[in-house]
Amino acid sequence: MYINAISHYLPSTLIHNDYYTGLKGLTDEWIFQRSGIRRRTRAAEDENSHTMAIEAISPLLDTLPYDVTDVDLIVGATYTPYDTVGTLAHAVQGFFNIHSAAAVTVTSACSSFINAVEIVEGYFATGKAKRALVVASEHNYLYTNEDCDQSAHLWGDGAGCVFISSERYSAQDIRILDVHTSGLGHIGKGVTGVHLRPSNGGLTMPFGRDIFVNACKFMAAEAQDIVERNNYLLGDIDYLIPHQANSRIMDHVAKVLGVEPSRVISNIEDTGNTGCASTLICLSQNWQKFIKDNLILITVFGGGYSSGAMLLKK
Known about the structure:
Blueprint: E1 2-9, E2 13-16, H1 18-24, H2 28-35, E3 39-42, H3 49-57, E4 73-77, H4 88-96, E5 102-106, H5 112-125, E6 131-139, H6 140-143, E7 157-165, E8 174-183, E9 195-197, E10 202-204, H7 208-229, E11 239-242, H8 247-257, H9 268-271, H10 278-285, E12 295-302, E13 306-313
Parallel strand pairs: 4-5, 4-6, 11-12
Antiparallel strand pairs: 1-7, 1-8, 2-3, 6-7, 8-13, 9-10, 12-13
Helix pairs in contact: 3-4, 7-8
């Protein structure tokens, strides 16, 4: 599989840590030391997960190697939906009039983008699709419970997208060497570690420590497994893009894997935790820095629990 084009969208509104000083008495330094966040992106009142996804896709329409209506599979990824019936994938299909595509939206917390790519792999393997659009969009603030001391200050909003084909279209395409996900609902606090219950407390994180421990463990394990499975060494990795949940988790995973800090890509300081869109946004923001033969490793962990990794080669 090959990534033909990539883009992202971040809302223009930034909420700085001092907002939570006034709201919860949390200082800038307290938040930064524990999360790595200085500010987070917030969708405007007229924005939602659908509109942010459309904003991410629109800049690519004139640069694609095929017409957007030639896409035959759309996979949305989100755990903060605007609508659970007219889903993210269907909203994208309707807006861009992609009339011949299958459309499905997946939710598996912060691993959902990697889950979505694995779904594309399955469609390609069975010959049911050849050109796919994967879009991840999170509107965390819509559901944020600002009474949650552990997590209210963590969340950011944003979206990203990738167009993926079964065949290479140009020398600029990046190859997806491998993708893998795991369900971990039986581990630790599982489905109760972090939850989003719209009519019962919103987005909260009652077991942050359990999430921290398991995220450190499984993000490192997924990364190591996918590298070894493709006959590479961890020292061969040029860039590591971990899920942007917490800078301490990212630092721990990089240390376990032996990846130097200069090779770790992060945006959490300026965006907060943008959920399953976070690694996709990071990948898009840094797309121009990747050169021929670079190996890019993405590893994620989501509440629920779930984990996954993807290995790319320029």
